[in-house]
Every structure is written in C-alpha cells, then in structure tokens.
Amino acid sequence: MTPLPDPKDILPHREPFIFVDEILELVPGESARARWTLRPDTPFLEGHFPGEPIMPGVIIVEALAQTGALAALSTDDGKGKLALFAGVDKCRFKRPVRPGDTLEFETRVTRVRGPIGEAEAVAKVGDEVACQATLKFAIVERDQLEGS
Question: Domains in the chain, ordered, with CATH?
C-alpha cells in the first residue's frame, strides 16, 4: 500500500491557515478524507468567543474546501495548480466545534465541467455531523493570479 502524502505536498496553504493535519483517504480527482484537531491555542479562538471558544463556521467550510482541494489537485492535471473557492450552497451547521475536538472532513467531487467543479462535503466530530455543504471550485494555473 502506498503511503498517503503530507497535505502540504499538495496544498499551497501554510500555518496559520492550513486546516488539514492528516490525509486519511485520497482518490485523486474523486474524493478525500482528512483530519484536523482544533487546538486550544489556535489564534482565532481568542476572539471567537472569549470564555466560550468555538470554531467559526466559515473556517469549517474552508477546511472542507482544503480537503476537496486535496482530491482536485492530486491528479496529474492538477499538480502545481490552485483550487479556488467559487461558491458554497446548502451549508448547514449542526453542532459547535470546541477546543480539543478532532474533525474528520469528507469531500466527494460530484461534477466537473472544464476548470469548474462541485463537491459534496461533510465535517464530523466523532459520529456527529458538524457541517455539511455543497462546494463549488475552480482549478487555475498559479500564474493566472499574478498581478491581481
């Protein structure tokens, strides 16, 4: 069995804005499963919310998008490119995520038309769904962003 890559070998994200610690499953171009633990010293928890820290929903969605990017960028055609957020639909938050919680993210690419795609995504803490959404993305060459 081939070992799974380090997320930083695929994603351009780095601390403090990478929300994937480990890849659990990866089917290039199709799906990915990953894990991330919300550490008590994570910087955004200082202000969200003092005395009652919870992970912001938009960051859960970003983590799902990063997991989707693992699937999209791990293909031969995706290597060296960027996956950009193009939209989010049907997003629902089902439970708060607190310091010490370990999230498991699952994304499944459901549609691709040219450089634009769509994926179904779910974030869980244990067996409980924390967030689910339909994500839209665009795969672009890195130099397409120069000068913008």
Answer: 20-141 (3.10.129.10)
Q: What is the pTM of this model?
A: 0.95
Distances, alpha carbon 138 to alpha carbons 3, 27, 72, 91, 106, in Å? 28, 19, 10, 19, 19
Residue 5 main-chain phi, psi, to 5 deg: -70, 165
Contacts of 131 (CB under 8 A, 6+ apart): 57, 60, 61, 64, 91, 92, 93, 94, 121, 122, 123
For residue 100, give the amino acid letter: G
Asked if 117 and 80 touch (Cβ cutoff 8 Å), the reply is no
Question: Active-site residue numbers?
Answer: 48
pLDDT tens string, the chain, 148 residues long: the values are: 789 999 999 999 999 999 999 999 999 999 999 999 999 999 999 999 999 999 999 999 999 999 999 999 999 999 889 999 999 999 999 999 999 999 999 999 999 999 999 999 999 999 999 999 999 999 999 888 766 5
At residue 87, φ and ψ (nearest 5 deg) are 165, 165
User: Is the separation of the CB atoms in 56 and 48 below 8 Å?
Assistant: yes
